[in-house]
Amino acid sequence: MMGAHIEGLTVSIADTPVVHGVDMSIGQGERVGLVGSSGSGKTMIAKTIMGLLPRQAVVEGSVRLGERQIVGASDEDMADIRGRLVSLVPQNPTTSLNPVERVGRQVARPLREHTDLGPDRRRDRVLRVLRSVGLDDSIATRYPHELSGGQCQRVCIATAMVASPRLIIADEPTTALDSLAQREILDLLTGLVEVSGSSLLLITHDFAVLSRSVSRAYVLEQGRVVEAAPIRDLIERPSSPMGRRLSAAASALTLHSPASGCVAVPSDDGIVNSSDDGGMVPSRGPVGSGFCGEACGCEACGDGAVRHGSRDNGSRDSGSRGVRMEEGASVGSEPLVRMSRLAVSRGRGRHRRTILTDVDLSVLPGRTLAIIGSSGSGKTTMVRAMLGLEPDVDGDVSYRGLAVRGPDSPGFRALRRESALMSQNPFASLDPWWTVERSVGEPLRIAGWHDGEDIRRRVDWALSSVGLDASLVAGRYPVDLSGGQAQRVALARAMVTGPRLIVADEPMSALDVVSRMQVVEACESIRRARPDMAMVIVSHDLGVVRRMADDVVALRRGTIVERAPVGDVIASARSSYVRALVDAATM
């Protein structure tokens, strides 16, 4: 019988075990999930099955694909197995596709290596599989840079399916996609697997992805399988501490989480005031407070803890963040940033294309604005224009009433002093050779701070504000941080100078669900401490948007198609496009 059977798998890199005694099985035609936080060993197991481990890796145990043994197989054997018996749908399609090779030739590679088909039959097979993933024939002659993220992922699925492998491994295949593209890719992938009879191993940290894609799943923690269960049991009644943490964090960041029940998320090294219960901190309240604001008396939080998911008039959470609407800006507040009749174009002559059209937008002090939309809708361009970083702009941008037009304009200078930017990848924005303390303190030195002790105290305060213990993390380097820690360090650096405005461009898209929850709570803590500060968040994660935002602007093809309080957008969006985004994001 075909399928994958793993017994006693142990993998060590440089004498450090990263996978410990893993037992797994995937039956023929079965869809199985592998879930765990970042660094738990999920991708290492996938690389073992694919025979793609680094040469210094030491592997013990057994990995069988049907009758073929992977452990100890020669390079020649693995070249025959990859693409024919097992194939991979990667996490990042844009870095997996060859930028200088046309799509059709890349999709055809498994056919050239594993079949005797001639050029004409190969071409027919490639076009047929491209159509099966929803791409037209013209895509075959295009290059990857000419495609959207969703199209590139479809190309990777086509490449994985073209030689009809027995097992497909999908490693976080939808992490970087908006909810609509996620739903389309998942439906496509599971549908193709069902039709072909192939097996599927879906690696993810997203329970919403698991809930509609697999029948059962394994939970991995620090390289060990700690739970194996049908997916519904894992979501509703997880038995392991890690399963409960992942399920709780996922429930807190979904659009329709239960109306009651506390959500506790685990800390990692360096979190302030973690409780005695496994380092878990109840969500929604101040970091480490143990309370969220509304009495529920549940076992996880005790008397006076938070009832999660409650709403105030259907538009806002009624926990500790609910007061911010009164503490922050009122309806009549003067906008911090105003954009009027904004249009952005790129290119020249017949290659000129419009990115944004007729955008009117205000950012109010004390409010969090979320900008949502699919890939290529203009979200990042809008943020760049807001910060005065787009060179070719028509219309007006002002900051606190001052025009933002070029680096010498008074509005631009004020904006640079009083705003901060959080990027999508914290490791790319932190200097790998600088300690956390130096990175967080850099904006203070640029702003004219000279006293080293004052800088150190301010850095300690900033790290504490985002739930990190300075005594534990200040001397670390980025390589020593988890994804959640690194993004909170980036948040501490953004707010260390006390900015009036923080702009975060997809700050959590690369994080697992537990790390997302930690960053969300850090942002909430800062918002409570600075009720007059404005935040702008670009995100495709509507669960995060629902949790963090006051107001939402939805973009489609460079045009605003919806703007409303977050509760109204989630509950009763007017735009059919936004309704589709919301429906696709529901677990």
TrEMBL record:
Tell me yes or no: is S-adenosyl-L-methionine among this UniProt entry's keywords: no
Q: Which family, according to the similarity comment?
A: Belongs to the ABC transporter superfamily. Glutathione importer (TC 3.A.1.5.11) family.
Reaction equations catalysed: glutathione(out) + ATP + H2O = glutathione(in) + ADP + phosphate + H(+)
Q: Could you tell me what this protein does?
A: Part of the ABC transporter complex GsiABCD involved in glutathione import. Responsible for energy coupling to the transport system.
Which Gene Ontology BP terms does the record give? transmembrane transport
The scientific name of the source species is Bifidobacterium minimum
Domain of life here?
Bacteria
Q: Name one GO molecular function term.
A: ATP hydrolysis activity
Catalytic activity, EC? 7.4.2.10
Protein name as it appears in the record: Glutathione import ATP-binding protein GsiA
Q: Which Pfam families match?
A: ABC_tran
The regions listed as transmembrane in this protein's record are: none
Enumerate composition-biased segments (Basic and acidic residues): 306-327
- Domain named ABC transporter: residues: 4-247, 337-582
Q: Which GO terms describe its cellular component?
A: plasma membrane
Q: For the region Disordered, what residue ranges are annotated?
A: 306-334
What does the record note on quaternary structure?
The complex is composed of two ATP-binding proteins (GsiA), two transmembrane proteins (GsiC and GsiD) and a solute-binding protein (GsiB).
Q: Which PANTHER family match?
A: GLUTATHIONE IMPORT ATP-BINDING PROTEIN GSIA (PTHR43776:SF15), TRANSPORT ATP-BINDING PROTEIN (PTHR43776)
